[in-house]
Amino acid sequence: AQTVTQSQPEMSVQEAETVTLSCTYDTSENNYYLFWYKQPPSRQMILVIRQEAYKQQNATENRFSVNFQKAAKSFSLKISDSQLGDTAMYFCAFMKHATSGTYKYIFGTGTRLKVLA
Amino acid sequence: GAVVSQHPSWVICKSGTSVKIECRSLDFQATTMFWYRQFPKQSLMLMATSNEGSKATYEQGVEKDKFLINHASLTLSTLTVTSAHPEDSSFYICSATLRSSGRTYTQYFGPGTRLTVL
Question: What is the tens place of the pLDDT at every residue in B87-106?
Answer without folding.
Answer: 999 999 999 987 655 555 78
